[in-house]
Write a structure and sequence with these properties.
The chain is α/β, with parallel strands linked by helices. The chain has eight helices and ten strands. Helix 1 packs across helix 8. Its EC number is 3.5.3.11.
Length: about 290
């Protein structure tokens, strides 16, 4: 696998073609093979890149500019259509190379199952890893209608891998009774409905620890982000999501990787969802990638 040739398409605003000196690597995981409602998140990474051009490179929130860091956009990982197992292996291989090169991985989804192989690779290098999961759905099922490879299962796989007490879930407002029971049995730090207040309380306990941050765009109310495969009313605002990213960035936690998933552009003709996602990615780059 070569990093001097991008896989495909446009690049995120301000991206460098200098992989060797890059602090962070943006990469797409265009997979939606296991979704339970509306497909189309495989087109999310490309549209987020295109939408990034509407934004300034300067963040007044963080008082930083994208020119302050070097980041490389590797394009989308070529994933075999309809084959989740091979796709997961391809993500493993790609992320392993990024981490071996000492780069900060920032992934664009794709469905949420893509987060599982990324966290596995990060966990191999940081055995005391904690995961911050911000989402409308718990994603703690063992399977979905008999299928273990599903976007309803990645956080269950992650909890079983890193230990439930190392998983922090915020904003969840759609779950099964069995998933709620599992959060209690596994010792997961589970905060339904809200993000802002519980995050403030939890971040001091993560000071100094390596943390992976995974954000599902559907944590945001569909009024602000309708372009997703499983919209769930009653979510947070885009302003609250930006605030959460900034609080994580300013905390003492050591963010070692992140992703933003489940943008499905076809369901938002106004393009407000990919435009918002691109702004969130800008803030994650400036806030998380040292």
């Amino acid at each position: 696998m070569r990093f001097d040739d991008k896989y495909s398409g446009n690049v995120f605003i301000g991206a460098s073609n200098d992989f060797e000196n890059a602090q962070a690597v943006i990469y797409g995981m265009p997979m939606d093979w296991t979704v339970s409602f509306r497909p189309g998140s495989r087109f999310g990474p490309a549209r987020i890149r295109e939408s990034s051009l509407v934004h300034e490179e300067y963040s007044h929130y963080l008082k930083r500019d994208l020119s302050d860091i070097i980041y490389f956009d590797a394009g989308d990982i070529p994933l075999p259509f309809g084959n989740p197992e091979k796709s997961i292996r391809a993500i493993h291989q790609f992320v392993s190379k990024v981490l071996d090169a000492g780069k900060f991985p920032l992934g664009l989804g794709g469905e949420h199952l893509v987060t599982w192989p990324v966290v596995e690779e990060v966990y191999r290098r940081y055995p005391d890893l904690a995961v911050i999961h911000i989402d409308a759905h718990a994603d703690l099922r063992t399977d979905y209608e008999g299928e273990i490879y599903s976007h309803a299962t990645p956080l269950r796989k992650i909890a079983e891998r890193i230990g439930g007490s190392n998983l922090y879930q915020f904003g969840i407002r759609s779950m099964t009774r069995e998933e709620v029971r599992y959060t209690e049995e596994a010792g997961i730090h589970f905060y339904p409905f809200e993000v802002v207040d519980p995050l403030v309380k939890c971040l001091p306990g993560l000071e100094g620890r390596p943390v992976y941050v995974t954000i599902d765009i559907d944590v945001i109310d569909p009024a602000h982000a309708p372009g997703t495969g499983t919209p769930e009313p009653g979510g947070i605002t885009s302003r609250e999501m930006l605030w959460a990213i900034h609080e994580i960035a300013r905390s003492g936690a050591k963010v070692v990787g992140a992703d933003l998933v489940e943008v499905a552009p076809a369901y938002d003709h106004s393009e407000q969802t990919p435009i918002l996602a691109a702004k969130l990615v800008r803030e994650m780059l400036l806030g998380f990638a040292e």
